[in-house]
Amino acid sequence: MIKVLVVDDSRVMRKIICKIFSMSGLFEVVLAADPYEARRLIKSYKPHVITLDIEMPKMDGITFLINLMRLNPLPVVMLSTLTEKGMEPTLVAMEQGAIDFIAKPAANSSDDGLQVFAAALIEKAKIAAQSYHIVKNSRSQKNVAVRRAEGQICKQNIIGKIIAIGSSTGGVEAINILLKNISRQLPPIIITQHLPASFSKKFAHRLNNNVDIEVRVAEQGCLLMPGIVYIAGGAKHLKVVNRQGVFSCELEAGPRVNLHRPSVSVMFDSLAQIPASDVLLVLLTGMGKDGSNAMKRRFDQGATCIVQDEETSVVWGMAGSAVELEGVDKVLPITEIAASIEGHYQ
User: Fold this and answer.
1) In this predicted model, what pLDDT tens digit does every residue of 209-260 receive, in sequence order?
2) Which listed residue (131, 168, 200, 313) is catalytic?
3) What is the domain range of residue 220?
4) Which site from 31, 117, 212, 261 is most exposed, i.e. has the minimal number of CB atoms within 10 Å?
5) Residue 194 bears catalytic tag
6) Is 18 contained in some domain?
7) Is 100 assigned a catalytic role?
8) Catalytic residue among 8, 100, 278, 290, which?
9) Which positions of the chain have pLDDT values less than 70?
10) 290 is catalytic
């Protein structure tokens, strides 16, 4: 049985979540009305997973999460709202190490809406439970000093080249770690992170404030410039158009690929029109296989391919699948990927 601690100040929400978990037959549940009660229960109950409300009296969920990850890291699924007000704290939670988040059901949700919420909650809690030992062990690895590249990047080495990064579950934190240790003297960087469309601009804005390199949301037709990061957004696939060595963004509202839009695979495959020696691909933590087959195709063409290792990945799905396909040059901890990227252009 997966032991879940539900932390929520709403008696109604606690009752709904408890019923969902209990009916699945996979979970053993205890309830806490606030973070102080949760702190006591963590010591005695020793949960595998915590579901955590963001807005609570006495102590908000973000403060509790930060303290938890510092003292006793555990897999956490945040309960959030997808409103403008709820986006900022949700992204902060992901940056601080929350595994995932789920939108709270509305008070007037239909039975179908509650069933969708229940299925998603169970799936996210199961994934979180599978990451229990990774979260416990990888926290110290993520806090070690990041290995930096030695030497100077030659500007000539970045002309006509491009870097593409894909990630999913756990990727918000991983991207923050990577970009905080990357310089501005690099080719254009494009990123597809699986997030709701409404989160894209806020995600890019937070990254831009947290890292040295400039971060923007990719826009239709915009030119890709060296030293700038472009985030896929708006529930559209991010593709690259190559016109005689000049790269620009193309946003495509096509069908979902590998269950996702934007899809990492679509982004990687769009780079087939660029000489493989000018392409560097990175796959970070994430559930599923989005991007892995496309990475293998680019690897076979001669592109350089780097993936995050299992020890520092919340979920070693996308990256692990690429390794299984033998489409990878390097498997590295998240703290070493920035140095490897920069070393590639020296």
Assistant:
1) 999 999 999 999 999 999 999 999 879 999 999 998 899 999 999 999 999 9
2) 168
3) 155-344
4) 212
5) yes
6) yes
7) no
8) 290
9) 82-84, 138-150
10) yes
